[in-house]
Write a structure and sequence with these properties.
- The structure holds two protein chains of two kinds.
- Chain A is 30% helix and 24% strand.
- In chain A, the strands form seven sheets. In chain A, strands 3-5-1-12-9-10-11 form a seven-stranded mixed sheet. Chain A has a five-stranded mixed sheet with strand order 7-15-14-13-8.
- Chain A is α+β, with helices and mostly antiparallel strands.
- In chain A, helix 8 packs parallel to helix 9.
- In chain A, strand 10, helix 5 and strand 11 form a beta-alpha-beta unit.
- Chain B has two domains: 73 residues, Beta-grasp domain (Ubiquitin-like (UB roll), Roll), CATH 3.10.20.30; 65 residues, [2Fe-2S]-binding domain (DNA polymerase, domain 1), CATH 1.10.150.
- Chain B contains five helices and five strands, in the order ββαβββαααα.
- In chain B, strand 1 and strand 2 form a beta hairpin.
- Chain B has a five-stranded mixed sheet with strand order 2-1-5-3-4, covered by helices on one side.
- The chains are: A alpha+beta, B alpha+beta.
- Chains A and B meet through helix 1 and helix 17 of A and helix 2, helix 3, helix 4 and helix 5 of B.
């Protein structure tokens, strides 16, 4: 053990080991769902609602099409018509009522993909239309009630101290309202799943993040027992949350068709269907009323958050929860009130997207410093320095931050490496010159991101992960955490290898397959490395102790020694398996009724300085450089961790500047990569990334979460830089040239 | 009709307007070429046609008649990766991997034609290939690494 009480990094942990499945991906041999040749497989397509709200009067299958070629399924073919998640309000296929445009109504399977799509043109749905609720404002107006008595899916109130008193005693009070839009995950592999039945048992396979979510949903749909459903992940071409809950839907559709057809069925969305019909980031409106002391210290934060949940509950309560807990930013304030709601509308359900509610509320929290600076004349960097978390700070939920608090470190690193202070004043001078063709700006943001499920979530999940060894000495990692590009396979093998004290090459990572791996919980919430990686380390240490005992002393270091010890350990069995189950760190407490306590085991921190130009004629924004420092605890694999940072930053640059989901009558009007613009290599600036490694004693080898943190921080920094450049604080996204033009 | 795919003569008897990507994936079972959007925006389906990068989702197979098609499968044997693929592995240029075959084929064109290893030029040539995972930086690093294989690999520099 090192002096901080953390296990020492071995040869594997801390090295930029090469991606385990990299050679398969680079040579084109990796098989994504649509690359699998499934014998006898039919292709499934979906009949979807054309209107946002109404009653289905009739589904007409035009006799001009030879329907005998197809298998057709409707709600009547679904034994329990519920997509199991948090609530039971969402049907797998609409039954009599449609609540959003593109809601699935019927399914068609055909041997030929082209004929299946052709068949869709011969289905007509007759509706009795009802008045739709399409925006947050419509939902708040409550002229139409879609859910409960008030359209509120979920509300949380977080309270610390006395906000009204704090505001009364403040030297200055600043108010602001911020609006953030939808964002499409835009993984390059669209949603795709296949299913088949054999002897009453169901196998579902495809592009997904959470095998055991799909497992649970299938059991519910068809009334099956644990052993009658098997879920296997195929190589997955990106997720970003977009394959967290939606595979329950598309997997269920494939399973319903396969059951009726008696043959395998696969469903692969095309881009337009994927973009228009599947989940997106929740749009939100966030209001801040902030009181500060004479010397710039936070005295009160009164924050209201309203999110658009779409037509069904899906994951909205948990997205809202994370948004609410992060709403006050990484700052200490004695009096905080966060009142957060998520509302029902007649739009496709919004869902999980990297950051999971935090980017929405952190955009508001961080840009609000510019508002405060504008009103008071104080410097936004100095304000952050005065108020940022340090060890011992108390958060809005009353959590005492005991260790691994890198907020100030990342802020100072980003400020220093970007030359923020110098550039800030140089750009001020530059912008005074009317002859220059562009304005320049540099802006800051600082954020926190909690690792793992919120509050008691990890305790309820009770995740398990295992390490096994067979008689030949082959070590296998057994976990349901999926590789979706973020590096799970590589990082798990590094953790297991060092815990065992063997080379990484001796460790294999099993494909997530519910017939082979225990339920490690979902691959979400920046929890794979910190939580599941921690379980694997414990399991590997148990294996190591058992091997040492079998070898009669210490754990064998040679391949031959390991094989002999493994053979003895397995004692005639094929393999020996060591499993660890989640246990909450000692002293962690959380109260769901008051929404207070230790919201997360630990937070990660990030700062960004965004350096950009705004063209004076076209109002086009060109980001010249992003400088970022990110405290992610010990980096298990610095190259992969840096890849998470650069990828998250690019996605946030897209959200801030380019990505514009245009909704018309409740449906996305631009569901194409032609007109929904995600950043190219030319739109994405060079990035200067510093990993700040403040070790966390509760994570494997000191690791914290990294997956989501990077997407929380760039958008407010870009908006702040545009404020410096143009002189106008624009409290909304995306900052398209026309948005800037409208505000100037 | 006849065409050369990865150095082998192949013939195709189906509809001449069938998309090249579908002929490659369905008829020749070369599934390394990926479809991301079907409208020539994302570049995941990039293959080389007579050495030039094209979106195989926009090309009717008839247009490839008598011509040379190269896909990702041509760049590596099962044992050994090509120079670009090695560089992508070392520099973290592949994450989820779905854009990777198209990205590598575009970079292969650039490498063969003696393209510049200057970061701006590399970003420019890759601008037709969308990646949602990497933020491009490690892809740019990978391509530069491969282009400079003889010298020492240097990473993208900032001002």
């Amino acid at each position: 053990m090192s002096k901080q009480g953390l296990p020492r990094r071995g040869p594997a942990v801390g090295s930029s080991a090469r991606r385990t499945e990299g050679p398969e991906k680079l040579s084109g041999r990796a098989l994504y769902l649509d690359d699998h040749d499934i014998p006898g497989c039919l292709f499934g397509v979906t009949v979807r609602s054309e209107i946002p709200r109404g009653r289905i009067k009739n589904i007409v299958f035009d006799p001009a099409f030879p329907w005998s070629e197809c298998v057709v399924a409707t709600a009547r073919d679904v034994p329990t018509n519920v997509v199991a998640l948090i609530e039971d309000d969402q049907p797998l296929l609409a039954d009599g009522v449609v609540r959003h445009a593109l809601e699935p109504i019927a399914l068609i399977a055909h041997e030929s993909r082209a004929r299946a799509y052709e068949a869709l043109r011969f289905v007509r749905v007759e509706y009795e239309e009802l008045p739709p609720v399409l925006t947050i404002e419509d939902s708040l107006a409550r002229r139409e009630i879609l859910y409960g008595s008030d359209n509120v899916f979920k509300r949380y109130v977080i309270r610390r101290g006395d906000v009204d008193k704090g505001l009364r005693e403040s030297h200055v009070v600043v108010e602001g309202e911020y609006r953030v839009p939808h964002q499409e995950q835009a993984y390059i592999e669209n949603n795709a799943m296949a299913a088949w039945w054999k002897d009453g048992a169901l196998t579902v396979t495809g592009s997904l993040q959470c095998p055991y979510y799909v497992h649970k949903a299938m059991k519910r749909l068809f009334g099956l027992a644990d052993g009658q459903v098997r879920v296997i992940q195929t190589t997955t071409g990106g997720g970003f949350g977009g394959k967290e809950e939606y595979p329950n839907m598309i997997g269920g559709h494939a399973a319903v068709l396969a059951r009726k057809a008696g043959r395998p069925v696969k469903i692969v969305y095309d881009r337009a269907e994927d973009m228009a019909a599947t989940t997106k980031r929740h749009p939100a409106v966030v209001r801040h009323k902030t009181g500060l002391s004479r010397d710039g210290r936070l005295l009160a934060q009164d924050i209201q958050v309203v999110m658009d949940g779409g037509a069904y509950v899906t994951l909205s309560p948990v997205v809202l929860s994370r948004g609410a807990i992060h709403a006050a930013g990484p700052y200490e304030c004695p009096n905080v009130r966060v009142d957060a709601s998520v509302l029902a509308t007649n739009t496709p359900p919004n869902g999980a997207f990297r950051g999971f509610g935090a980017p929405q509320t952190l955009f508001a929290a961080e840009l609000h410093w510019e508002k405060i600076a504008q009103k008071t004349g104080w410097d936004p960097l100095e304000l952050r320095r005065k108020n940022a978390f340090r060890e011992g700070s108390v958060t809005a939920t009353g959590q005492v931050l005991k260790e691994s608090v890198g907020a100030r470190d990342v802020l100072e690193r980003a400020v220093k490496k970007s030359g923020y202070v110098k550039k800030r004043s140089a750009y001020e001078r530059w912008n005074r010159d009317p002859k220059k063709p562009c304005w320049k700006g540099i802006g800051l943001a600082l954020v926190q991101h909690g690792g793992g499920f919120t509050g008691s979530g990890e305790v309820h999940l009770a995740s398990r992960a295992a390490v096994s060894i067979d008689r030949e000495g082959l070590v296998r990692v057994l976990a349901a955490s999926t590789e979706i590009g973020q590096g799970t396979n590589t990082m798990f093998s590094q953790i297991a290898a060092d815990a065992l004290g063997v080379p990484r090459e001796w460790v294999e990572v099993e494909t997530p397959d519910t017939a082979k791996v225990p339920d490690s919980g979902p691959t979400v919430a920046s929890r794979t490395c910190m939580v599941v990686g921690g379980l694997l380390r414990r399991a590997a240490l148990d294996l190591r102790a058992a091997l040492a005992a079998a070898a009669g002393g210490s754990c064998p270091k040679t391949r031959g020694g390991l094989q002999r010890a493994a053979a003895r350990l397995c004692a005639g069995n094929k393999e020996k398996r060591f499993e660890a189950r989640y246990e909450p760190p000692p002293g962690v407490r959380w109260d769901d009724t008051t929404y207070s306590g230790d919201a997360y085991a630990v937070y990660s921190y990030a700062a960004v300085a965004a350096d950009l130009e705004v063209d004076k004629t076209s109002f086009e924004v060109r980001v010249k450089k992003i400088t970022t420092a990110q405290d992610i605890g010990r980096a298990i694999n610095p190259l992969l961790a840096e890849g998470q940072v650069t990828g998250g930053v690019a996605q946030a640059v897209g959200w801030a500047l380019y990505e514009n989901v245009v909704m018309k009558n409740g449906r996305m009007a631009n569901p194409q990569l032609t007109n929904y613009i995600i950043p190219t290599a030319l739109d994405t600036p060079p990035m200067d990334v510093t990993l700040v490694e403040k070790p966390f004693s509760g994570g494997p080898f000191g690791a914290k979460g990294v997956g989501e943190l990077p997407i929380d921080v760039p958008a407010p920094a870009i908006a702040a830089a545009i404020k410096q450049a143009t002189g106008v604080l624009i409290p909304e996204l995306p900052l398209l040239p026309e948005t800037i033009h409208r505000h100037l | 009709m006849n065409l050369t795919v990865n150095g082998k003569k192949r013939s195709f008897g189906g509809a001449p307007f069938k998309r090249l990507i579908d002929v490659l994936r369905e008829d020749f079972r070369l599934t390394g070429t990926k479809e991301g959007c079907g409208e020539g925006e994302c570049g995941a389906c990039t293959v080389l046609l007579d050495g030039e990068p094209v979106n195989s989702c926009l090309i009717p197979v008839a247009q490839a008649e008598g011509r040379r098609v190269e896909t990702i499968e041509s760049l590596a044997s099962s044992q050994k990766l090509g120079v670009l693929q090695e560089a992508f592995l070392k520099r973290g240029g592949a994450q989820c991997g779905i854009c990777t075959p198209g990205m590598v084929m575009t970079a292969e064109y650039w490498r063969r034609t003696g393209g510049s290893s200057e970061p701006g030029a590399v970003r420019n040539v890759l601008a037709g290939n969308l990646c949602r995972c990497t933020g491009y930086q490690h892809i740019v690093d990978s391509v530069i690494e491969a282009l400079q294989r003889k010298g020492k690999g240097k990473r993208e520099k900032f001002e």
